[in-house]
């Protein structure tokens, strides 16, 4: 109950901030995208991880206004970077289940894009496999998002309800290989085989692929040899503030 009232205060009091984790082109080493990740800048407790409040926000429905705040803040920031002359790149935003199945999601996103002036091609929405279980509903929502011109990626790929059915049926652009598979590629031959196979499959399906949770040079080397397009993880950078991200955009990682 305390968390609920504090979260309500945080929404109206503008206590949230976005951090940004770079997504790196594996061939050029350049930053080609960023994932926006929410933090709660609590007046007494300081920065609070989303692990602490996103699950509760999901349960209580507060994720809908919080998610809208994230979407607007991310689009606004990306547009500001473009206006400042930084290279154009997509910003990705995590959609929660409730947001994804919300009435008139397309209209809400279109409204945010219009308000912020961001071209839809520079917004990427991350959904998880759990949102694809209601196949007809998910296809309908995804088609509407694609009509807007935004990109869609499947987050944490391989950990959820992994039906390969949706890979051929759903209008998606990119798979994000979950970091639990990346973690052990150098020690567990099964994980290495799974990751190599996912990457090969994405190429055959004309999807893009990014590996999450890259922490070592060996992992990076493996992913490069197996033709992964993009990488994200602590090896390059943890999620950082807008200021710190700008520094990386100017000087490289
Ligand atoms: O940034 P960090 O790794 O601490 O995030 C922890 C979890 O919170 C991750 O699962 C991440 O997807 C989730 N998360 C972070 N930001 C958002 C957000 O804006 N919306 C939603 N729905 N989840 C988020
Ligand atoms: O669920 P999602 O994939 O959106 O989660 C993103 C989360 O992953 C963020 O909280 C971020 O802090 C975390 N993260 C990003 N890179 C790494 C990494 O290299 N290793 C680990 N363990 N976590 C990471
Ligand atoms: Na994500
Ligand atoms: Mn992810």
UniProtKB/TrEMBL annotation:
Residues 1-253 form the EAL domain. This is EAL domain-containing protein. It comes from Paenibacillus germinis. The chain holds residues 358 to 610 of 621 of the full protein.
């Amino acid at each position: 109950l305390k968390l609920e009232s504090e979260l309500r205060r945080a929404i109206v009091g503008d206590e949230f901030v976005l951090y940004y984790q770079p997504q790196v082109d594996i061939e050029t080493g350049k930053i080609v995208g960023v994932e926006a990740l929410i933090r709660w800048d609590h007046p007494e407790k300081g920065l609070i991880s989303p692990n602490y409040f996103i699950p509760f926000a999901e349960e209580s429905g507060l994720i809908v206004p919080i998610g809208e705040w994230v979407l607007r803040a991310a689009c606004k920031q990306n547009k500001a970077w473009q206006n400042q002359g930084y290279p154009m790149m997509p910003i990705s935003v995590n959609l929660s289940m409730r947001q994804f199945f919300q009435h008139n999601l397309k209209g809400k996103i279109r409204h945010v894009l219009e308000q912020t002036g961001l071209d839809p091609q520079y917004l990427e929405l991350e959904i998880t496999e759990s949102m694809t279980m209601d196949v007809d509903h998910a296809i309908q929502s995804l088609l509407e998002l694609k009509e807007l011109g935004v990109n869609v990626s499947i987050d944490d790929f391989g950990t959820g309800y992994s039906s390969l059915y949706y890979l051929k049926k759903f209008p998606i652009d990119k798979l994000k290989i979950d970091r639990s598979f990346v973690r052990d590629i150098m020690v567990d031959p099964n994980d290495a085989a799974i990751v190599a196979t996912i990457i090969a499959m994405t190429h055959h399906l004309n999807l893009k692929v990014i590996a999450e949770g890259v922490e070592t040079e060996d992992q990076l080397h493996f992913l490069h040899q197996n033709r992964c397009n993009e990488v994200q993880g602590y090896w390059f950078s943890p999620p950082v503030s807008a200021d710190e991200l700008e520094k990386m955009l100017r000087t490289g990682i």
